[in-house]
Design brief:
CATH class: Alpha Beta
CATH superfamily: NAD(P)-binding Rossmann-like Domain
Strand content: 5-15%
Number of helices: 8
CATH architecture: 3-Layer(aba) Sandwich
Order of helices and strands: EHEHEHHEHEHEHHE
Helix content: 40-55%
Strand order of the largest sheet: 3-2-1-4-5-6-7
Largest sheet: 7 strands, parallel
CATH topology: Rossmann fold
Shape: globular
Number of domains: 1
């Protein structure tokens, strides 16, 4: 068999139990990576693992993890260091919608959830995983955002503000790592058939949206050791 683009790479993917995270996990595994998958639901992760084993014969490493449990997020670096000694790829895919409501009416718990998952957890992942990515010969970090981060769309205050803050933080980190082998980028996948999209647009026909699998190739490109793109916010080709 021909070696894949990601042969032998260690990749951590958050929000990997469904949607874009699961599609990226399957595609990375097909390209030869060993994928470490996190999500809150063990059963859904096991389904993705079963699909990977059926298609590629390999197995994923599964970590049941709530990204709002910051102590456990902080422990990801030591956990992966003990198991693998390095991390080659981080795909920070997990996201929380919060609540679509006027800013003054957003429930405090839903506002906090959006910022905890979309921003604070990703900052903690950077803190705990940066040394491992630095130990790789070509560390790659890919964060998932949305066009609404730059918009002023009414009722999207929690999601837009948290994603805007995420993009600012990632841009700063990209500037700080410019002279290192680490490459840091943001993907805005656009309207894609995901659970979060269905929550935001409950009346939308999912058949009109592109599939998560259709954007997975871009993640492979950005995760490749050959990729030199850095500090960009990237949209998949139409």
């Amino acid at each position: 068999m021909t070696a894949g683009i990601l042969e032998g790479r260690i990749a951590l993917i958050t929000g990997a139990s469904r949607g874009i995270g699961a599609a990226v996990a399957r595609r990375f595994a097909a390209e030869g990576a060993h994928v470490v998958l996190t999500a809150r639901t063990r059963g859904a992760l096991e389904e993705v693992d079963d699909e990977i084993r059926a298609a590629q014969g390999g197995r994923a490493t599964l970590i049941e993890l709530d990204l709002a449990d910051f102590d456990r997020v902080d422990g990801m670096g030591p956990t992966l260091a003990e198991r693998f000694g390095r991390l080659d790829i981080l795909v920070a895919n997990a996201g929380a919608l919060g609540e679509l409501a006027p800013v003054q009416d957003i429930d405090v718990a839903r506002w906090t959830e959006a910022f905890d998952v979309n921003l604070h957890a990703n900052w903690r992942l950077i803190r705990t995983l940066a040394p491992l990515l630095g130990a790789s010969d070509s560390g790659r970090a890919i964060f998932v955002s949305a066009a609404v981060a730059q918009s002023r769309r009414p009722y999207w205050g929690a999601y837009a503000a948290s994603k805007s803050a995420l993009e600012a933080m990632v841009a700063c980190w990209a500037a700080e790592t410019r002279r290192t082998p680490i490459r840091v980028n943001i993907v805005q996948p656009g309207a894609t058939r995901t659970r979060l999209r269905a929550q935001a647009y409950p009346g939308e026909d999912p058949a009109t949206l592109k599939s998560p699998e259709s954007v997975a190739g871009l993640f492979v490109e950005l995760a490749s050791p050959a990729c030199q793109r850095h500090g960009e916010t990237i949209l998949p080709d139409p």
